[in-house]
Design brief:
The chain is elongated. The termini are far apart. The protein is of the alpha+beta class. Strands 5, 8, 9, 10, 11, 12, 15, 16 and 17 form a 9-stranded antiparallel sheet that branches. Strands 18-19-21-20-22-25-23-24 form an 8-stranded mixed sheet, sandwiched between helices. Strand 18 and strand 19 form a beta hairpin. Helix 3 packs parallel to helix 4 and helix 4 packs across helix 12. Helix content is about 20%, strand content about 25%. Pfam families: CarboxypepD_reg (PF13620), F5_F8_type_C (PF00754), Peptidase_M14 (PF00246).
Length: about 725
């Protein structure tokens, strides 16, 4: 969801002579000049990437993305040449170096390997060591790809591993805990808005016991291979090894870094499992999930194909429809799942999941594709829980709200997309800041004493500026708003990535320009309940041994937080949904890794499966019922349901049905509608699975009856005429 001060963090200085941090006048607002070879993301099988362009002698050609610093002064630390122990070194294909300094790798390459798990936290802190660290916050445990720093340098949550300045032989070491086949390294610089630090080249060593080491050799020169690294803070740079090495330990040894900066890096290691030689009958690793689902990343065409397959497999409970198009013309597809798809059944609540608002946060997209497969399979198997869910609820799944951004991220691949590429739409719009700000007019009306008599506390209208033809509103945003207004949604969750926490409205701080401030809604108990339900049933969030993703430990507060108390988000979808419609919506940050590798999808599904189902079932909490005309028994649309003590009302759907989410307790509830006398009754919400029925019958006012009679051309009844005359005399 969040990209903490990304704009400032990505302005990279040029490598230059002299001491100290570079000034703006010397930067030219651009990074150092680099020479960049084409990249083939197929180096990472399991990463979403196009296949190799061509083949030769039956093997795929892989082109490796490398960056070489040209004609720039860098600090170089010389180290003695290490001798390689013969028994541990396997034969390697020849490697040559081009005049530009890039390594010419062999054409026929062994396939790359998945990430070891530094970014996803599968590698624990005690598996990381370093020769030295500038501080605790710059220790080896911070040397993880895409880790984000706190606002202040020098705290416990800085943005990389950084060696001490006087460390002449710096290194960062990873213990895989058992032998693996190392195949590549991905590096980044230090995430910081205050400093510019990155490594420009490094060597790699391997060991089986952490005492005897050998390195990757450049066979054309007989020297240890030196790998080109980074030229800015954030862009991930992949280097494949000349030949994969089987070992338990791997070390990255920085050789040069930015002039005036420090030896700082973030990394991910690519490694394949290998059989344990001590086991005569090695076991096949068990899959993280036993569900027969499609665990891979899906681009736009693959997603559309999968949704079509689910619809064909379960035609009686599914419907695929589009709510609009992206800026580049890709359709925003929704999977509807219900026992009567395509229609709103009276008394049946509507629920939605939205994913992919930020295109590079891919896990939510895949979880919704997995969820629709799971619901279809389990319904066909007769699973009673799923059957009840689909017969009592109408579910809508939007897996990709920002398909343009996702396609950008997908082409880069799961490990090379970085922290922000693909986040925004093709127009450069952050969709989670693009909804109308209804918070400001709400709070101004409260401050002026205009609520609720002049300004309602619900269904606030769109501001005039937002409806102008030249308003900066993305087509994706307009499509979702029209969707919200068309369907009477009751409950929703917005799936994001990059953290492990559930945040709830309000997302915008009430104090203008406050970066963070606790700003609860009138329905704070309900939102805290909903957030706790998801966090409490998410395996990863409930892991007592897990470490914080980046710079905040949300487990101290039950893995939930008020959105505005985290960081202010004006124009969020959550706030808009609450203030413009009946729908209660939270944001779920699903994983530390925004775009996890395919081999991690089964475990991520297991982490979230129970939470996704349990959250859908929360639509049954509170009260529900009908508001009907006492004389005709017809439902009354747009009747207002007000709960004493809660300054936020909901309204009935076009059939007179309504749902009001409430925590257990006793409530006085009033139903009112234009032309009718209001009715108040007591409704008790228990801990029993609900919702609790709370129905109303309203009687028309005499004025409304007269208006309807006159409109129909009928004569006024004598009794009504006498009542009206008495009312007139009282006024006189």
């Amino acid at each position: 969801m969040w990209g903490l001060l990304l704009t400032l963090a990505t302005v990279a200085p040029a490598v230059r002579q002299g001491q100290g941090a570079p000034g703006a006048s010397e930067l030219g607002l651009g990074p150092p000049r680099t020479t960049e070879a084409p990249v083939s993301p197929s180096a990472l099988p399991g990463s979403p990437a196009p296949p190799p362009a061509g083949k030769k002698n039956g093997t795929s050609q892989q082109r490796v993305r490398v960056r070489v610093i040209k004609k720039k002064k860098v600090i170089v630390k010389r180290r003695k040449k290490l001798t390689s122990p013969g028994p541990l070194v396997t034969a390697r294909p020849p490697v040559t170096t081009s005049p530009a300094g890039t390594m010419d790798l062999p054409e026929a390459r062994e396939p790359g390997c998945p990430p070891l798990g530094l970014e996803s936290l599968r590698v624990s802190d005690n598996q990381l060591e370093a020769s030295s660290s500038q501080s605790v916050g710059l220790g080896p445990h911070r040397g993880r790809l895409n880790i984000q720093s706190g606002l202040e340098d020098g705290d416990l949550y800085d943005g990389a591993w950084c060696a001490e300045e006087q460390d002449a032989e710096p290194w960062l070491q990873v213990d895989a805990r058992h032998p693996v086949r190392f195949s590549g390294i991905i590096t980044q610089g230090r995430n910081s808005i205050w400093r510019y630090d990155w490594v420009t080249s490094y060597k790699v060593q391997f060991s089986n016991d952490s005492r005897t080491w050998w390195g990757s050799r450049n066979h054309s020169s007989g020297m240890d291979a030196v790998f080109p690294a980074n030229s800015d803070q954030e862009s991930p740079v992949l280097n494949l090894l000349p030949e994969p090495q089987v070992a338990r330990f791997i070390r990255l040894l920085p050789r040069s870094w930015l002039q005036g900066g420090a030896s700082c890096l973030r990394a991910e290691i690519l490694a394949c499992p290998v059989p344990d030689p001590s086991e005569p009958f090695p076991e096949t690793p068990a899959l993280a999930s036993s569900d027969p689902l499609d665990f891979r990343h899906h681009n736009y065409k693959a997603m559309r194909k999968l949704m079509k397959q689910v619809n064909e497999q379960c035609p009686n409970i599914t419907r695929v429809y589009s709510i609009g198009k992206s800026y580049q013309g890709l359709k925003l597809y929704v999977m509807e799942m219900s026992d009567h798809p395509g229609e709103h059944e009276l008394g049946e609540p509507e629920v939605r999941y939205v994913a992919g608002m930020h295109g590079n946060e891919a896990l939510g997209r895949e979880l919704l594709l997995l969820l629709m497969q799971f619901l279809c399979h389990e319904f066909l198997r007769g699973n009673p829980r799923v059957t009840r869910l689909l017969t009592e609820t109408r579910i809508h799944l939007l897996p990709s709200m920002n398909p343009d951004g996702y396609e950008t991220a997908f082409r880069r691949g799961s490990e090379l997309v970085g922290w922000a590429e693909g986040r925004w739409t093709q127009q450069g719009i952050d969709l989670n800041h693009n909804f109308a700000d209804l918070n400001t007019p709400l709070w101004e009306a409260e401050d002026d004493g205009l609520m609720p008599d002049t300004v309602p506390n619900h269904h606030l209208p769109m501001p005039a500026y937002y409806t102008l033809p030249n308003a900066t509103v993305a087509p994706e945003t307009r499509a979702v708003i029209e969707w919200m207004e068309r369907i009477p949604f009751v409950l929703s969750a917005n799936l994001h990535g990059g953290e492990l926490v559930v945040s709830y409205p309000f997302d915008m701080t009430r104090t203008p320009w406050a970066a963070r401030e606790l700003t609860p809604t009138p329905d704070d108990p309900v939102f805290r309940w909903l957030s706790t339900v998801y966090a409490g049933t998410n395996w990863a969030m409930q892991d007592p041994d897990r470490r914080p993703c980046h710079n905040q430990d949300f487990s101290l507060h039950g893995n939930i937080i008020n959105g505005a108390d985290w960081h202010t988000v004006p124009g969020s979808m959550n706030d808009f949904s609450y203030l413009h419609t009946n729908c209660f919506e939270v944001t779920v940050e699903l994983s530390c890794d925004k775009f996890p590798h395919e081999n991690e999808l089964p475990q991520e599904w297991e982490n979230n499966k129970e939470a996704l189902l349990t959250y859908l079932e929360q639509v049954r909490m509170g009260i529900a019922g009908f508001v009907r005309d006492k004389d005709t028994e017809l439902g009354i649309a747009d009747a207002v349901i007000a709960v004493d003590g809660i300054n936020h009302d909901v309204t009935t759907a076009w059939g007179g049905d309504y749902w009001r989410l409430l925590t257990p307790g006793d409530y006085m509830v009033t139903a009112s509608a234009e032309g009718y006398h209001s009715v108040t009754r007591s409704c008790r919400v228990t801990f029993e699975e609900g919702p609790v029925p709370c129905n109303f019958h309203l009687t028309k006012t005499p004025k409304q009856r007269l208006r309807e009679l006159l409109a129909a051309g009928a004569k006024v009844p004598p009794d009504l005429r006498r009542r009206l005359e008495r009312l007139r005399r009282r006024k006189d």
